[in-house]
C-alpha cells in the first residue's frame, strides 16, 4: 500500500482542487482521505454518499449534577480556569471555559461532578462518483484535537484500503505545520507540496519542507499560478534545485479552478484546456516519482 499526501504550507494554493482532479484521473481505484478536517471541503467536489457516519469523541468536560451538590464551593476554588461560577445560588460549569482537567471532580466531596466525553465532530466512510472510496470528517465548531481526528481518518482509510484490496491512499493534507499536518504525513510514502509564487507562499513552503524532511520521505512540488509572479517562481525553482526537491509541475493561473468549484466539478471535468492538460501531466509525474522509490 502506498500513501501520497498533498499538502501546502498555506491555505488557498489549490491543494484540494488538485486532489479531487487527481482522484478522478487515477486509473486504479483508490481511497481518498480528507485530512483537512478543520476546513473539510473536498466532499464538495467528490460528492461522496456519506454511507457510514460516526461520532468523533474526544476530550472530556466537567458536568455538575445539582441534585448532588451541597454548595461547599470547593470546585470553584479548585478550578484554575475560572470555569465555575455561582449563579442564582447554584454552582454552574461554563462548558466553553472548562479545559477538562478533572480537578473539580476530584475535590468534590459529594461526587456531584463527573467528567463526560465530548463529541468533537463526525467522520464518514463513503463511495464517490469516481469509484474507490473516501474517508472524511468534519470537526465541530471550536472543537480541538484535529490532529487526533486526522489520525482517525488516516487509520480508517488504511483499514478500508486493506479490506477492499486497494493499493493507493491519496491524502488531502491539512495546511500549516501543526499537529494535523504531522498526522497527515505520518506513514506517508510521498509528499507533494503545493505552493504559489507569493512571498507568503514561498515562506510557508520552506517551513513545511523543514517539517516534511523529518519524515524521510520523497518530496515533490507543484507551483500553482506560476505565471502570476515569474520572479518568485524562479526563486522557488532555484530553491527546489538546491534542496533536491523534484518540480512535479508548474500550473498556470486560471479561473477554471474557481469556476469548476462553484459548479461542484473538478477542473478537468469543467474544462479540457491548458490547465486540465497540465493537471493530467502532474498526476503522471506524481505516479512516476512515487514509482522511483
Ligand atoms: S474540569 Fe478543570 S477546567 Fe473544567 S471545570 Fe473542572 S477544574 Fe475547571
Ligand atoms: S465541590 Fe461538589 S458539592 Fe461542592 S459546590 Fe462543587 S459540585 Fe457542589
Task: Please describe what this structure looks like.
The structure is a single chain. The chain has 293 residues and is of the alpha/beta class. The chain has two domains: 2-47 and 128-291, P-loop containing nucleotide triphosphate hydrolases (Rossmann fold), CATH 3.40.50.300; 59-119, Alpha-Beta Plaits (2-Layer Sandwich), CATH 3.30.70.20. 37% of the residues lie in helices and 26% in strands. The strands form two sheets. It has a nine-stranded mixed beta sheet, with helices on both faces. Strands 4-5 form a two-stranded antiparallel ribbon. It is elongated and about 70 Å long. 44% of the residues are buried. The model has no long low-confidence stretch (mean pLDDT 92). One iron/sulfur cluster is lined by residues 64, 69-75, 91, 108, 110, 112-113.
Amino acid at each position: 500500500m502506498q500513501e501520497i499526501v498533498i499538502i501546502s504550507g498555506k491555505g488557498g494554493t489549490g491543494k484540494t482542487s488538485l486532489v479531487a482532479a487527481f482522484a478522478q484521473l487515477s486509473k486504479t481505484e483508490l481511497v481518498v482521505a480528507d485530512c483537512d478536517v478543520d476546513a473539510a471541503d473536498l466532499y464538495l467536489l467528490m460528492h461522496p454518499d456519506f454511507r457510514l457516519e460516526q461520532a468523533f469523541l474526544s476530550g472530556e468536560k466537567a458536568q455538575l449534577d445539582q441534585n448532588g451538590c451541597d454548595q461547599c464551593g470547593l470546585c470553584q476554588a479548585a478550578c484554575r480556569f475560572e470555569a465555575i461560577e455561582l449563579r442564582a445560588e447554584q454552582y454552574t460549569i461554563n462548558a466553553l471555559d472548562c479545559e477538562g482537567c478533572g480537578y473539580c471532580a476530584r475535590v468534590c466531596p459529594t461526587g456531584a461532578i463527573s467528567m463526560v466525553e465530548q463529541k468533537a465532530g463526525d467522520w464518514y466512510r463513503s463511495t464517490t462518483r469516481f469509484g474507490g472510496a473516501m474517508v472524511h470528517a468534519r470537526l465541530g465548531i471550536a472543537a480541538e484535537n484535529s490532529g487526533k481526528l486526522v489520525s482517525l481518518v488516516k487509520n480508517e482509510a488504511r483499514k478500508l484500503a486493506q479490506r477492499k484490496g486497494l493499493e493507493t491512499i491519496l491524502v488531502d493534507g491539512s495546511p500549516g505545520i501543526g499537529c494535523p499536518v504531522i498526522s497527515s504525513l505520518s506513514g506517508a510514502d510521498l509528499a507533494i507540496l503545493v505552493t504559489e509564487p507569493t512571498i507568503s507562499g514561498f515562506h510557508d513552503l520552506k517551513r513545511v519542507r523543514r517539517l516534511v524532511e523529518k519524515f524521510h520521505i520523497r518530496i515533490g512540488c507543484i507551483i500553482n499560478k506560476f505565471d502570476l509572479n515569474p520572479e518568485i517562481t524562479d526563486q522557488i525553482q532555484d530553491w527546489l534545485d538546491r534542496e533536491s526537491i523534484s518540480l512535479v509541475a508548474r500550473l498556470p493561473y486560471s479561473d477554471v479552478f474557481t469556476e469548476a468549484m462553484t459548479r461542484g466539478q473538478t477542473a478537468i471535468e469543467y474544462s479540457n484546456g491548458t490547465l486540465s492538460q497540465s493537471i493530467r501531466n502532474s498526476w503522471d509525474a506524481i505516479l512516476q516519482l512515487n514509482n522511483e522509490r
